[in-house]
Amino acid sequence: MFVCVCNALTEQDVEDAIIKGGVRTPGGIYHHFGTEPQCGLCEATLRTMINAATRQAAEERAPRHDGGERKSTRAAASPRPATARCEA
Ligand code: FES
Predict the structure, then answer these.
(1) For strand 9-10 and strand 2-4, is the pairing parallel, antiparallel, or unpaired?
(2) What is the phi/psi pair of residue 81, to 5°?
(3) Between vectors from CA 24 to CA 81 and to CA 55, what angle results, nearest 5°?
(4) Domain range annotation of the chain
(5) 1, 2, 7: which to mutate for ligand 1, most atoms within 8 A of CB?
(6) Per-residue confidence at 8, pLDDT binned at 50, 70, 90?
(7) CB of 86 sitting under 6 A from ligand 1
(8) How does DSSP classify residue 33?
(9) Residue 29: Cβ within 10 Å count
(10) How much is the mean pLDDT over the chain?
(11) Residue 28 half-sphere exposure toward CB, CA atoms < 13 A
């Protein structure tokens, strides 16, 4: 599904840019794909996806205090929010 309709960026594109590419701003997402914001309606969604992925990565890096082994919850807690709709 498209997150940014104007630039044809899918959820998978954006997740890859965040997780594999280390992009941490909506502007960085556009830059990563050689695009620019058009209508801007996707910016809040991009920010939400970045925040969710950043929070998830921090939780996975944080030491546990119960001595147990941390298991990834990335698949269970996808940072995929509702997508923006472009009316332009
Ligand atoms: S700039 Fe992303 S949906 Fe329009």
Answers:
(1) antiparallel
(2) -85, 180
(3) 60
(4) 2-61
(5) 7
(6) very high
(7) yes
(8) T
(9) 27
(10) 85
(11) 15
